[in-house]
Design a protein that fits this description.
Blueprint: H1 2-10, H2 23-37, H3 39-51, H4 56-64, E1 73-77, E2 83-87, H5 90-102, E3 106-114, E4 120-128, E5 135-139, H6 146-160, E6 163-167, H7 181-196
Parallel strand pairs: 5-6
Antiparallel strand pairs: 1-2, 3-4, 4-6
Amino acid sequence: DVWAGLAGVLHRPRFSLELHAHPVALLTRQMGACLSTGCGMTTILACLLLGSRCNVGKLQASFAFFPPSPPSYSYQDAGDGTGTIKFVEAELQEAADTLLKECPSIKCHARRLITPTGQSVCVNHFDHAASSGITLLWSHGNAEDLGHVFFVCAQLAERLGVSIVAYDYEGYGLSSGRPFEKSLCADILCVYEYLIE
């Protein structure tokens, strides 16, 4: 009998199985008991680790990083090493154009930087005409990209009278690669070096 065999496999000395109970009830009860003793959680973690081909960094990244898909913007290259960010949604693009007209001291341009790992990272520079050389380096939150922080950065630059440079991590927005902890550090260092040049 399959259920009797299953009962024998799942049986733990502390827990008794009722062989005449419904099979799903038996399984649920045993899984609950197994989870409370820790072996179920260990099994789940082992399965997740195997699913990521035993790469702990890949498993960690799958829980830690949630890049928006699809990106909220596109990148239009101007041909001189810079470009502009255009929103995918027409209403947002119209709002961005209106905002930049209302903030004449802010000039917005984008570019792609190449990181030491060879990946392309998108950067959006909100250049304030009277910033006195002060520039904030903006790292957005999880599940966001440059499009999501565009309005916050533009308004913050205008109100504080500073320039702001925002960037997308690898794997976010139109930046290439995949997000990992090490790549985040490489990304911010690449943007920082761009700022001090």
